[in-house]
Design brief:
The structure is a single chain. By secondary structure, the protein is of the alpha/beta class. The protein has one domain: Rossmann fold, CATH 3.40.50. The protein has helices at residues 55-61, 88-102, 115-125, 147-156, 159-167, 170-178, 188-195, 205-216, 218-225, 249-258, 273-276, 278-290, and strands at residues 21-25, 28-35, 40-44, 66-70, 107-113, 130-138, 236-241, 262-267. An 8-stranded mixed sheet has the order 1-2-4-3-5-6-7-8, with helices on both faces. Strand 3 (40-44), helix 1 and strand 4 (66-70) form a beta-alpha-beta unit. Helix 6 (170-178) packs across helix 7 (188-195).
Length: 291
């Protein structure tokens, strides 16, 4: 049972002290955190992360805001059905349902990695409900012409790729660590919270299938990008890890060319900024979110 994960000896309930909430979707129970009162801050993770990534952000901003951080179906403390698409489009629909269920208005949207398109899928559908956006390393445009994405797609559709992801838990064990510029910033104690929430092969289809969507959802990404003008005047705070080997600085330039009301904070770290430079990222967000 997913509820039992928090009872495991490796799980640090002091690091993640929040009450677990569950939203029932047609495909399974979706776990989320709902802490604090005030204007809504919705935090959207990518892969292979979950709401644990934002734990220190929730602790900080829930003092003044209502912080909602979900675990996508297939991730974290949500249910992990084997037979589902796990496409970012479907995740975006779940996010929309959760926001509607909670009645959230004037949202500050925080997005990262695959959570970028997932969160923007909601934001572009309901731009009037978005107050501002905090954007960590992510993208939201076509991927099928990108050579790196093509390589990833080929690997993840191969026998080897499927075996690595499903049998060896490759994404959280290996790729997550590779996402750090300073590997010393990822302790074994913290790392196990990303590895052990995917305990068996049957729990890892969400990791595999969202990775496989990097090309499969290319047209959907591009359709969102073509609508970005709806959000281009919204206040954006871009916090970018300049040493990211997955989503590189040239992606940042594309965001800056698109947006009209943004500020950028460049940090000397890798992809998982929220873990590697937690204090600096929170400080960067403080004035932007609070004002």
């Amino acid at each position: 049972m997913i509820e039992n994960i928090r009872k495991q000896s490796w799980f640090d309930n002091e690091a993640y002290p929040f009450a677990s909430q569950y939203f029932h979707t047609p495909i399974g129970k979706m776990h989320y955190i709902d802490e604090g009162k005030g204007e809504a801050v919705v935090l959207v993770h990518g892969t292979p992360a979950w709401s644990f990534l934002y734990r220190d952000f929730i602790k900080h901003f829930s003092k003044t805001h209502r912080c909602i951080a979900l675990d996508h179906i297939g991730f974290g403390l949500s249910e992990k059905p084997e037979n589902w698409t796990y496409s970012p489009q479907e995740h975006a629909e779940n996010l929309e349902k959760l926001i509607q269920h909670l009645g959230l208005k004037d949202i500050t949207l925080v997005i990262h990695d695959f959570g970028g398109a997932i969160g923007l899928g909601y934001a572009l559908k309901y731009p009037a409900n978005i107050k501002k956006v905090v954007l960590f390393n992510t993208w939201c445009w076509e991927t099928k012409s990108n050579q790196e994405a093509q390589k990833v797609n080929k690997i993840l559709h191969s026998f080897l790729g499927k075996m690595l992801y499903l049998n060896f838990n490759f994404s959280p064990k290996i790729l997550f660590r590779q996402g750090f510029y300073n590997k010393n910033k990822l302790s074994a104690k913290v790392h196990q919270h990303y590895v052990k929430v995917f305990p068996s092969k049957k729990d890892r289809y969400g990791l595999l299938k969202i990775g496989q969507s990097i090309i499969g959802s290319s047209d959907w990404f591009e359709a969102l990008w073509q609508e970005m003008d709806k959000l281009a005047d919204k206040p954006f705070l871009i916090i970018w890890g300049m040493k990211d080997e997955f989503i590189k600085p040239d992606f940042l330039a594309k965001w800056e060319a698109c947006l009209r009301n943004y500020q950028t904070v460049r940090l000397e770290c890798g992809h998982f900024i929220q873990e590697e430079m937690t204090t600096e990222a929170i400080q960067a967000m403080q004035y932007f979110v609070g004002k």
